[in-house]
Amino acid sequence: MPKKIYSGKIVSDKMDKTVVVAITRLYQHETYKKTVKKVTKFKAHDEENKCKVGDTVSIIETRPLSKEKRWTVLEILDRG
Questions:
Q1: Which of 19, 27, 33, 74 is deepest in the core (most CB within 10 A)?
Q2: Secondary-structure breakdown of the chain: helix, strand, coil percentages, each rounded to the nearest 5
């Protein structure tokens, strides 16, 4: 099974070697058929501490690295 890859914006870089990435997705409500925006936050591993708040990054699924970290920063797509 291939690993999932998402892109999102960094909302926090206060931890050492860890960033919080917010993934925004749009979906249609089942009953009301309105387009709804849902934001999910993932903790991702950033080995060199290169990422800053506002950067757009690509993250890839990985083995559990800590209690909440299951993602790794693949590349920085855009500097914020």
A1: 19
A2: 0, 60, 40
Residues 6+ away with beta carbon under 8 Å from 78: 55, 56
Place of tokens 């860890």: 18
For the cut 90, the answer to whether the pLDDT of residue 58 exceeds it is yes
Question: What pLDDT is recorded for position 80?
Answer: 80
Nearest to 44, CA basis, from 28, 26, 60: 60
- Tokens (6 digits) for 64: 């559990």
Which tokens belong to 65? 């690295």
Q: Considering only CA atoms, which of 25, 16, 10 is closest in space to residue 73?
A: 10
Tokens of 60: 């890839």
pTM of the full predicted structure? 0.90
- DSSP-assigned letter for residue 38: E
Residue 62 to residues 17, 36, 45, 55, 71: CA-CA distances in angstroms?
15, 28, 10, 21, 5
